[in-house]
Amino acid sequence: MKTIVNIISREHPLAAYLFIKEYYEVGDKLLFISANENFDCITPLVNTLKVDKAIVQRIVLRRDSDKYTYERICRTINNAIDKNAEYCVNLAGGTRYMALSVQHVFSNYNTKFYYIQTHENLVVKTIFDNSIFDNDDEVYPIKYRITLDEYFRVYGLTHDLDTPKTIISDEQQAQQMFDLFAQRKLNNSDYKVLDVLREKYRNWKYIDINEVEHAVNDSMIPIPNLSKFLNYIKFTPSQKGMLIHEELDYLTGGWFEEYVYHLIKNNVAPDDIAIGVHIDGVTEIKHNNELDVCFIKNNQLYVIECKSGIKSDSMFNEIVYKVSALKEVLLGLDCHSYIFSLKKDPTGDLKKIAKYMDVTFCDYDVLTKEIKLMKQLKKMTSVVAR
Hints:
Distance between the termini: 30 Å
Number of strands: 15
Order of helices and strands: EHEHEHEHEEEHEHHEHHEHEEEHEHEHH
Structural class: alpha/beta
Strand order of the largest sheet: 3-2-1-4-5-6-7
Number of helices: 14
Radius of gyration: 26 Å
């Protein structure tokens, strides 16, 4: 049996995970090589693999200077490995110095070299010899497909996927809500109803529609046209005369998340998809770590922030910074971040701001024109279409 070798980095643990899932067989051993600051990334990866920890070996460069000192890296690795073992080495991950050092050391032993290209969903098998003209490199598609649960756990994140958010609408009702907003079929009275529901009642466990309409209680703000509004948008509460918390959330913006959820599910065919997922990780930086819509397609994570309305450019900037920071701090290099909104961007300035932060902004013009929308959905996953 063989030993599977991976270089571990905090920014890119997915390459190691996919390499092991693709090539691990019962009886194999696992070897992880890392700089000291990336040592704690090995544990969540091993836990996600669910392998016997007795087969796992770690080589850690404890001194900061070691991670970029070629000879020290080579000596450390060479002194720690079994010279008679068979190795499969993945050169993705870590610094260039680390990859060069790993390649140099293992070239002296019984080794097959690979490179996991996650963005192309490919594995490249390479022979390092004196000939560069025999075309002996082999390229394969990665067969294994991860789930959202696996992705989050590989990055050391906790999540609430086991308690999924309630989906209120089917595709037809979500489309109906989208049309009402996109086609400006709501009047000032309708928006006032929504404003009060959002500002006053959104976090309530439930409300009695009749009580809210007449509101004799000082703690309540009356919404005289609530029943009329619900009839107009053709929304039927699950409990007669009541709106439960999930329905209040839906009416005050959750409908747009569900619209995007149905849109992605029907047109992108994701490998795994979820709505309203909360994640958390070990970090001193606090964020609102809710992912409105997230999905996996060909081992890549896509996260969509859904905002039906964005009142100002400053609010848009705050959303972009939040989305960008969430990716940088928690979700890693294999995450693709998007903002979907009915806000108009006629000059394209907002798209430029988002792009600068490595976020794609899909505005009113994209979401309401089928050709542009389908082009964008196709583009979202075209890079990893293999």
